[in-house]
Design brief:
The structure is a homodimer. Chain A contains five helices and ten strands. By secondary structure, chain A is of the alpha+beta class. In chain A, the strands form four sheets. Chain A has a three-stranded antiparallel beta sheet with strand order 3-4-7, with no helix packed on it. Chain A has a two-stranded antiparallel sheet with strand order 1-2. A two-stranded antiparallel sheet of chain A has the order 5-6. In chain A, a hairpin with a 2-residue loop joins strand 1 and strand 2. In chain A, helix 2 packs across helix 4. The longest helix of chain A has 23 residues. The first copy, chain A, is globular. The mean pLDDT of chain A is about 85. At the A-B interface, strand 2, helix 1, strand 3, strand 4 and strand 7 of A face strand 2, helix 1, strand 3, strand 4 and strand 7 of B. Strand 10 of chain A pairs parallel with strand 9 of chain B, so a sheet runs across the interface.
Chain lengths: ~190, ~190
Amino acid sequence: MQFRTVKTLNGLNTSQMFETIDALKTQPSLARFQFRASNTWINGGENRSTIKGFYGAGREDDSRTEPFVLTNGEPPVLLGANEGANPGEFLLHALAGRVTTPTVLQAAARGIHIEELSTELEGEIDVQGLLGLDNAVPVGYRQIRIKMHIKADCPDEELDELLAFAQGHSPVCNTVCRPIPVTLERVKDQGPD
Amino acid sequence: MQFRTVKTLNGLNTSQMFETIDALKTQPSLARFQFRASNTWINGGENRSTIKGFYGAGREDDSRTEPFVLTNGEPPVLLGANEGANPGEFLLHALAGRVTTPTVLQAAARGIHIEELSTELEGEIDVQGLLGLDNAVPVGYRQIRIKMHIKADCPDEELDELLAFAQGHSPVCNTVCRPIPVTLERVKDQGPD
């Protein structure tokens, strides 16, 4: 009887990771993913997304039996009742993941064991832009600062390399620092009249 | 005895809304906000943010007694166990809020009553970039499409104007279409040695 050893590093199944990388090298079209969200406005600054299916690795994923349900809200000072974190805060959370996960993946590929990793994010925004009060004021975040604390079994220089990789190859500087096309289209109802 | 009438439209207290707008016109510095998130890596593609305090309207906010806790995860095909929506999906949720809330606010300011509003979002990504397999492949979303369904008590032309405002004045096209500076800095431990 033979046991198959599952190798893990940083909580990742590295055998599966290298198999995935090999598969993508042979068939790059498997790397195409489409993620989706359906959002419904509730009231005021409250709205809710359900997230379940996505396309990736050449097929429609069916691993999720229940959807993830996420609620945007606003604090009282922005006319809400703290129904949830606000969209700007959800964006910071997304960025935290988009810095952390590539760092952890890249560390695993290099054989580095990460002991601790945390990030602190701060985003500066002037809501005059959002409210349309002053066209000279940029809408959205003026700047986002991310501070990372990381402890791993490698020299400091390697940690800096890892971070440079994470900054260059993570989607952070691609959905935020680099402009990407976003289209917003109103779907016209085809009513009975 | 006198009752104060609270006027609401689209679930927003419009008296408070116009008072806020007036206050910001008189003292624009009140419009400066800083949002924050603290994220801790758990394992593999799982990491968790806590979000509570923020600065805005000239002071540190204290309206939240409990933090919002948000968990990033990855599906099995991306080496995870669906511990939560993934960072790319959280980004779509943030964008949904950042299109919806300004639309609702602007409608309220114009006296338009919104009956229904929902959005469908799709983001295309090629994970070769993320994994560093092909430097020619852009990292992060190549494109995001947002479709909005909206029903309100106004003519179609006004809805289109509202959408044009939302696209021009919402933070969507500022944290995504427009590059903004993101800094990522490693905090060096000042250990005892």
